[in-house]
């Protein structure tokens, strides 16, 4: 009888050990937004494969779900957001995640419809679209102030209510960031758009009427993970591969300055 029990138990034990080993060495799941982050992650995945680090890429089309998925354990890392955005998400949603390393900088730019070639041609009461999320919305308002289009009474996370003067009576409208390129063509005079969405839309980042200063920018995108996983050797290896010279050269060759390595 004891032999029979051992005979029945042994396959279950072997299965448990095999499954445990598989879970322990699963492919590192990396969440990215479509566009530059996806292209870079695909290149990094090939580099990681040569170093025996399996990587699986999970693609997202918005700025909210990558953190939802990371906090829930559905992915192991995400690469798509700058530190102020991550800080706001952690504060408002209570995520147990943090940035592990710097990734790239995607400069924010002011883009106009075809008839507007420079800042001086912006008409009175022009409609300007900006991202609806608090951090990129504030970033956009600061950019518009630097472009000389308005002035702000508060420069710490400003909102539309912080506009002090607006001599051209510009009409600012907040919309979801992925919709900005399409809505610029259909229903606006100008839009403040991140370089990643510009590239996804097939637009030329060099056609921006005004671009934020990339030097010492606080808006560097970061590699984020759950706090409990910060010492995970797979994550540390992935960061080492991401921040390599080969990846930096790939970014420079692929994006021609529109996207910059930040390490």
What key attributes describe this structure?
single chain, 23% strand, globular, alpha/beta, disordered N terminus, 263 residues
| Biggest sheet details | 5 strands, mixed
Q: Provide mean pLDDT, rounded.
A: 90
Strand content: 15-25%
- What's the quaternary structure here? single chain
Q: Can you write the helix and strand succession as a string?
A: HEHEHEHEEEEHEEEHEHEEHHE
By helix and strand content, what is the structural category? alpha/beta
Strand order of the largest sheet: 2-1-3-13-4
| Unreliable residue runs | 1-10, 12-24
Shape: globular
- Helix content class: 25-40%
Rg for CA atoms: 23 Å
Distance between the termini: 64 Å
Q: Say how many strands there are.
A: 14
What would you say about this model in short?
The chain is of the alpha/beta class.
Describe what this molecule looks like in 3D.
This protein has nine helices and 14 strands. The protein is of the alpha/beta class and 263 residues long. The strands form four sheets. A five-stranded mixed β-sheet has the order 2-1-3-13-4, sandwiched between helices. The chain has a five-stranded mixed β-sheet with strand order 10-7-11-6-12, sandwiched between helices. Helix 2 crosses helix 8 (233-242) and helix 2 (36-50) packs antiparallel against helix 9 (245-255). The radius of gyration is 23 Å and the shape is globular. The N and C termini lie far apart (64 Å).
